[in-house]
Amino acid sequence: MKHPRGWSIVKVVLALLIVAGGIGLGLVIAMADQKLTWMGIPARPAPGALSPRFEAHSEMFDIVGVDAPGGLELYLDRYVTSAPVDKAVIEITAEDGLGASTTATAVESGEGLYTLTPSPFGKPGRYTITMTITAGDDIDLLGAALTIATSEPPRSFSLGALLITGALGAVAGAVGVLVSGLFGRRRAALIAPLLALALISTAEAAPSGKGHSHGEGGPVGVDESTGVPANSPRRMPDGAVFVPKPTQRMLNLRTGVSKIQEAARVIRIIGRVAPDPAASGRIQASLNGRIMFGEGGVPSIGRRVARGELLASVVPVVNPIDRGNITQQMGQIESEIDAVKAQLEELNRDALSPAVMHRVEQARLELESLHRRRAAIALVIGDREMVRVALKAPADGLIASSNVVAGQIVSSQEVLFEIIDPNRLWVEAAAYVDAVQIERISGATAVTSSGRSYELTFISRGPKLRQQAIPLNFRIDQPDSSLSVGAPVTVFIRTPDVASGVILPQSAVVRNQVGQNMVWEKVGGERFEPILVRSEPIDGQNVLIQSGLGQGRRIVIEGANLLSQIH
């Protein structure tokens, strides 16, 4: 019996089945790449992923290999210090999953960089790597594994693709109903699935959306989440940082292995560099006068002088009032001289009796005294070169300050020169601590603002407080030319009390964004993780990590502040 043409329940069911089949087929095609991955066949890395790499380490060496476009790059460092290893020989053997192996020797091409061209990892798959490293007398054998992804681009699976597939499936169902009406159900059963498959294939060939590329010219080498090149330094979501080997070379990162040790507790105070009172001195004017220099010229700052060496002279100066008084004294002396001369003439005319001879002798002595007084006053009025005061160096050393110029008028007690022996310097400090702690000093270290440290020897403490602080004096054991008198220093006083912890350079401890102390641990060839610590200084260059850090961990001791700036 022949059924009439037109819409019927059977036709509607057939259309729905075609739509469901289209959606199911779209899901199968869209998830094909995921199934391949589940089967153990790696897909090509998404655009922006890191280059294929491996790493291995031992107690001697730390090596990172990067399969770059130009060949295999090997970065060889010392494990403890992370210092690049030069002039090494690296023999590498790569074995794929089928048992085929390749052996070659890398060529040194930079600081701790060795290259192998072409790369032994030419085909996708998993490789087992064996490396023999020879650096001088050190020989080591390291192993690693590397997976090279397939070069086929992955298909993406998104909600947009599913919607497009479903829409085209619906169109296919409508067309199937139309075909059923025109050609009958039997012919439609053959034609409609073929038409649905063609439309769904068109949907799968459609672009997969922004950020994905199935051909050349896509955003290869750029991380879409950060917008930076994939092999650039970056901070991970867990707070760690990824630093490629070339960047580590540029930042000159160095590490050290943590070790539990004991150190003396310290008291931190502020001081300044001062001259040794027994090896320094000041030159002051003893009277008012004018500065005059000798044949050696003006003594300059920094000039070395010897004890007793003549530096300058002070010639007395006379003001108008004093000159008037001196002139009056000169007149009185002249009149006294004339009176004594007249007396001598009268006595010489008398008979030379013993009494007269005695009076003559007294008159002559008085006349000589008056002449000497007149000569002395004449020097002050006229030529004063004979009454100049010599200024001589009180000690051996360098001229630290010179406050005079030629012809300068100075007053008495004015400081004209300061002499300092740079090999004998002190540190004067003030301690705002208990006096009992000062009595237990076992040693001290002074640190300048530039970071240089000097060992100190305790000399004495003042019995009287100075601005509520105890004055302390230390002698610098081995001063050098970089020290300046008056420069501020930080003094670390060591006590007999001992604390245990990890001793690290002060440069290893940095602060995070909230001001907490932290160190960076190198947990991999190119990965660094932050560790919060509690520390206290033990001298000017090292700190004691009291908590947060254990034994045998690689800590960044140089360049830690640069790691903190990576975002």
Task: Give the SSE map.
Layout: H1 9-30, H2 32-38, E1 53-57, E2 61-68, E3 71-78, E4 89-95, E5 101-105, E6 107-110, E7 113-116, E8 125-135, E9 138-148, H3 159-183, H4 185-204, E10 234-235, E11 241-242, H5 245-251, E12 254-257, E13 260-275, E14 280-284, E15 289-292, E16 304-305, E17 310-316, H6 320-349, H7 354-381, E18 389-392, E19 397-402, E20 409-410, E21 415-420, E22 425-431, H8 435-438, E23 443-448, E24 453-461, E25 470-476, E26 488-505, E27 510-511, E28 517-522, E29 527-532, E30 534-537, E31 542-547, E32 554-558, H9 560-563
Antiparallel strand pairs: 1-2, 2-3, 3-7, 4-5, 4-8, 6-7, 8-9, 10-11, 11-29, 12-32, 13-22, 13-26, 14-21, 15-17, 15-20, 16-19, 17-18, 19-21, 22-25, 23-24, 23-26, 24-25, 26-31, 27-28, 28-29, 30-31
Helix pairs in contact: 1-3, 1-4, 3-4, 6-7
Overview of the molecule:
- The chain is of the alpha+beta class and 567 residues long.
- The protein has 4 domains: 1-49 and 152-230, no CATH class; 53-148, Immunoglobulin-like; 254-272 and 424-563, Elongation Factor Tu (Ef-tu), domain 3; 281-392, no CATH class.
- Helix content is 26%, strand content 35%.
- It is built from 9 helices and 32 strands.
- The protein has a 6-stranded antiparallel beta barrel with strand order 13-22-25-24-23-26. A 5-stranded antiparallel beta sheet has the order 1-2-3-7-6, with no helix packed on it. Strands 10-11-29-28-27 form a 5-stranded antiparallel beta sheet.
- Strand 28 (517-522) and strand 29 form a beta hairpin.
- Helix 1 (9-30) packs antiparallel against helix 3 and helix 1 runs parallel beside helix 4.
- The protein is rod-shaped and about 175 Å long.
- It starts with 8 loop residues before the first helix and ends with a helix.
